[in-house]
Amino acid sequence: MFSLIETMRLDNGEVKRLSYHKKRIDGAIHHFKLNAFDFEDALRSYVEKNGLYTGIYRLRVEYNNDLKITHDLLEDKEEVDANVLKMAPTDSEFLEYKTTVRSQYVTTTYPFALYYDSENRITEFNIGNVVVKEADGYYTPRENGLLNGVMRQFLIDSGKIKIRDYTLEEFIELYHEKKIDIYLINSLREWVKVNLHV
Questions:
Q1: How far apart are CA 71 and CA 49, in angstroms?
Q2: Average pLDDT of the residues in 34-42
Q3: Is 124:147 a contact under the CB 8 Å cutoff?
Q4: Which of 117, 137, 146, 192 has CA atoms 20 to 30 A from the CA of 91?
């Protein structure tokens, strides 16, 4: 039996982008026909019980009609190394919803991987979405049936990033010519610069 997952940034007692996390887990609960629960109240109670009002923590919720919440201190990473891999085909519901089914998110030489799909379009990282910084702004690919991350949607809604697709060949050429910077984004770590090995 798999569980739904939400991994959140708790910053001095505040869950960042809480409404986005709630919307995503509520949608997954509805899709997988699980019992609804008060997500915000469960988090509030957990923070209060554990006195997590100072510092930055990773909060992790797992839910499959049983609720498990854990936390640990978050050590921020400023840069990571990643390579590029083709994503293996998998059941789309385990790409569109965040669950403990993670077999599709394989890596090889590096702990982080940037994927491309069967049409050679850049899609996402194994633990987050991709943002490309060009001279005229910041871009992220269309969802292409993959996970629309909380941080990604927040940045789109606030007008900080725009949608643009990249083919693998175009992406690698731009990177080699130093015309783009690449970032891994997620709601936990926010922005992390990527050194891509291609």
A1: 12
A2: 98
A3: yes
A4: 192
Q: What is the C-alpha separation between 65 and 50, in angstroms, rounded?
A: 23
Question: What is the C-alpha to C-alpha distance for residues 102 and 82, in angstroms, rounded to an integer?
Answer: 18
Residue 135: predicted pLDDT: 96
Cα 40 to chain centroid distance, Å, stands at 20
| Residues 193, 181 contacting (CB under 8 angstroms) | yes
pLDDT at 145: 62
Using the Cα atoms of residue 167, residue 173, residue 177 and residue 181 in order, give the sign of their dihedral: positive
Residue range 52-67: mean pLDDT, rounded: 97
Are the beta carbons of 147 and 98 closer than 8 angstroms? yes
User: What is the DSSP secondary structure assignment for residue 68, as one 8-state letter?
Assistant: E
